[in-house]
Specification:
Elements lengths: L3 E5 L5 E6 L19 H4 L12 E2 L4 E3 L7 E3 L8 E6 L4 E4 L5 E3 L5 E10 L11 E2 L6 E9 L6 H4 L6 E10 L4 H7 L11 E5 L14 E6 L10 E6 L3 E3 L1 H9 L29 E3 L5 E7 L2 E13 L2 E10 L4 E8 L17 E2 L2
Parallel strand pairs: 3-10, 4-17, 12-15, 12-16
Antiparallel strand pairs: 1-2, 5-8, 6-7, 6-13, 7-9, 8-9, 9-11, 11-12, 14-15, 14-17, 18-19, 18-22, 19-20, 20-21
The protein binds zinc ion.
The site of zinc ion has 4 residues, from strand 9.
Function: Reversible hydration of carbon dioxide.
EC number: 4.2.1.1
Protein name: Carbonic anhydrase
Length: 355
């Protein structure tokens, strides 16, 4: 089996993952996990600074009170408009309407396209960004360009302030009818360069709950040429899609054209996390545990933050927001050393942890 690429699983089983690509095929992006090591030779930025994706580990996160909730303009696209969905040979991409934009970033950014990254059916990892080393099943990127300074995405993509990408982490859960508005068309874009029209819908439906909680940092495109031109907003809370929907994403498409005698499955099109030297990720939320509770018999959300050295003993600062009153209240509750935060009882019932 000299012309087959052997892949050793963690279990020790050796399976044939795919046929070794022909020389002709190596002209492509070569998005295999081992392929990205070769990117810097042809695309120097890929070996440079401010590279993405990264792992959001606790010691690089810094709360920033200036991070406002984003505003989404024109995201509700009427069904009379149509988006073009295309298999570009390394992902599935949907062109967005130039009437869509995002505000509350340093500039106004206009939408260009969205696309996805995913793994394969044999593993649970497919996201590009990770949280404390944990991968999610897949990741959606909604790409915008700085339309205040640049006439189009081509002019913006290699500029330091050129792009803003919104990233949504995807995990397994119930069937997601909003994602299905894209996913049900995968069968029409199985092969490279195939296109299909998708009726307009509200792109906001693809975003997670609690949109005001996100990670923000300056990074890069995660595919060649890896320009360090992206202001990243990665939403803290994932969106759920069903196991069947994830499987469709992982199995429906090929990197190759329909007449290629050696079809190459479109799998594992995520880049590995990059080094993150002397940089910080700014977060719009207080790192902490999130609890659901009822306070004063009204539904509310409580966010409990472990505060080190608060009055020289471990403490929890609870920030709770009543949904009904739309009013914010702050409380603090001191814990005894070693006490679990869920044991705190004030007039709050911190019974069910939700995230
Ligand atoms: Zn991407």
């Amino acid at each position: 089996a000299t012309d087959a690429l052997l892949f050793k699983e963690v279990t020790g089983n050796i399976i044939v993952l795919e046929k070794k690509p022909s020389n002709q095929r190596l002209k492509g992006l070569n998005l295999r996990p081992d392929g990205e090591k070769a990117w810097p030779k042809k695309y120097p930025f890929c070996g440079g600074v401010f590279q993405s994706p990264i792992d959001f580990r606790k010691d690089i996160l810094q709360y920033d009170s200036n991070l406002l909730p984003l505003e989404f303009i024109g995201y509700n696209v009427p069904s009379t408009d149509q988006f073009t969905l295309i298999n570009n040979g390394h992902s599935v991409k949907m062109y967005l309407s130039p009437t869509m934009s995002v505000r509350n970033l340093p500039f106004e950014y206009t939408a260009s396209q969205l696309h996805l990254h995913w793994g394969n059916r044999n593993k649970s990892e497919g996201s590009e960004h990770t949280v404390s080393g944990k991968h999610f099943a897949a990741e959606l990127h909604i790409v915008h360009y700085n339309s205040e300074k640049y006439p189009d995405i081509a002019a913006a993509m290699d500029k330091a302030d050129g792009l803003a990408v919104l990233a949504v982490l995807l995990e397994i859960g119930p069937f997601n009818p909003s994602y299905e508005k894209i996913f049900r068309h995968f069968w029409n874009v199985k092969y490279k360069d195939q296109k299909v029209l998708v009726p307009g819908f509200n792109i906001h439906e693809l975003l997670p709950d609690r949109l005001h909680e996100y990670y923000r940092y300056e990074g890069s495109l995660t595919t060649p040429p890896c320009y360090p031109s992206v202001l990243w907003t990665v939403f803290r809370h994932p969106v759920k899609i069903s196991q069947e929907q994830l499987l469709a994403l992982e199995t429906a498409m090929y990197c190759t054209e329909s007449d290629d005698p050696e079809p190459l499955e479109m799998v594992d099109n995520f880049r590995n996390v990059q080094e993150f030297h002397e940089r910080l990720v700014f977060v719009s939320f207080h790192e902490g545990e999130l609890y659901e509770c009822s306070c004063a018999k009204k539904q509310c959300t409580v966010i409990c933050v472990n505060v080190k050295n608060w009055n020289s003993s471990p403490a929890a600062l609870c920030h709770y927001k009543t949904i009904k009153e739309k009013k914010e209240n702050y409380r603090s509750a001191k814990t005894n050393p070693g006490q679990n935060i869920s044991e705190i009882k004030d007039d709050l019932d911190l019974s069910s942890k939700v995230g």
